[in-house]
Amino acid sequence: MRSRFVRRWIAWVSIGEACGFAVAAAAGVLAEALRLGDAERLVLLVAAGAVEGAALATGQHAAMERDRPRRAAWVGATAAAASLAWLLGMLPSTVGLPEGPWTVVLLVVGGVVLLATIPVAQWLVLRRPGAGRWVPISMGAWLVAILWTAAPSPFVDESSPVLLVVALYVVAGALMAVTVAALTAPLARSLFAR
């Protein structure tokens, strides 16, 4: 029964996150195609981040078998946190960073905060004994999984066909989704399996 839950978790979470990331990737391609300015691109991708978060949370919620948090709270918190994560991730390229030794410190602190946004928001919704483990496990899963989003970079540039760029980032998003799902599955089983 427990292995059934793990398969269920990996399937639902992967589908939710992959679909959500596809929306964010499409928004990025749209921003490029429309040649949006930095501010407009930021707004579009932060909004797409909310869709990604909502899709992820919907997949997670569908996989849960017991002790489910309220769906609206889980989805809302995750969508808001994903928007914040996209905002934090895009700020350095949008507003620029000061040159100097503090740049590395800012990037490291910002990276840790970015990785913590979704796990902390979800932990606040869970509010039960033992749920605190969700934060470090999820942060570690995202740290590993987000590396997939850099994988297409060596294969694309400004002259790459749009369909190739979209396809590579959709595949990267799917790999990211499966990675997050697989790495969080053992803890999710202890929290949400019957």
TrEMBL record:
Keywords: Membrane, Transmembrane, Transmembrane helix. The chain crosses the membrane at residues 9-30, 42-60, 72-91, 103-126, 133-151, 163-188. It comes from the Bacteria. This is Integral membrane protein.
